[in-house]
Design a protein that fits this description.
The radius of gyration is 26 Å and the shape is elongated. The chain has 162 residues and is α+β, with helices and mostly antiparallel strands. It has a 4-stranded antiparallel sheet, with no helix packed on it. Helix content is 13%, strand content 26%. It folds into 2 domains: 28 residues; 104 residues. It is built from 1 helix and 7 strands.
């Protein structure tokens, strides 16, 4: 091989390596993707102040840590006492859905979940080994209670057309 061919081959390899580094996810740190579930899709929770908060992890993960930490005065402090936390010393059951206040098999809670304040801001932080993910969310306001034993409203009659 001539010197020119070696130089062209090395430039092509360098461009190929640059492409893989900048335009693929091969070298990026992976994270857990989380989305907030709609309140009507979530049932059964220890949360009494607002409708239960549910979270979808997009994939099943064997979680090692789950924390929900409130925001204080519009700022987040990761060292604040969590409203709810779960940890595991061994393997937890792989899970895809987290419901606030509901235990995950294989994980233990040091204390019961505190009720979410309707309209309050919180951060969910999850870990599964070296993978981490977080989601900032606002607790839903509780829906207005339906009065009991009240008959439904009677529609008003439509006047006849003249």
């Amino acid at each position: 091989m001539s010197r020119k061919e070696i130089m062209l081959l090395s430039m092509a390899l360098l461009l190929l390596a640059g492409y893989f580094y900048f335009f693929t996810d091969a070298f990026k740190r992976q994270s857990i993707l989380i989305r907030l579930a709609a309140p009507r899709q979530v049932t059964g929770s220890a949360n009494r102040g607002a409708p239960p908060a549910g979270f979808d992890l997009m994939m099943k993960y064997a979680l090692t840590s789950v924390k929900v930490v409130p925001w204080r005065d519009g700022a987040f402090n990761k060292f604040a006492a969590p409203s709810w936390s779960l940890t595991t010393k061994s393997n937890s059951t792989p899970t895809k859905v987290i419901i606030y206040g509901t235990p995950i098999p294989g994980m233990t809670a040091p204390a019961n979940a505190q009720p979410l304040v309707p309209g309050g801001q919180y951060r969910l932080m999850v870990e599964a080994g070296s993978l981490k993910g977080q989601l900032d969310f606002k607790a839903f306001a509780a829906p207005a209670a339906e009065p009991e034993n009240v008959p439904p409203p009677v529609p008003e009659p439509v006047p006849p057309a003249r």
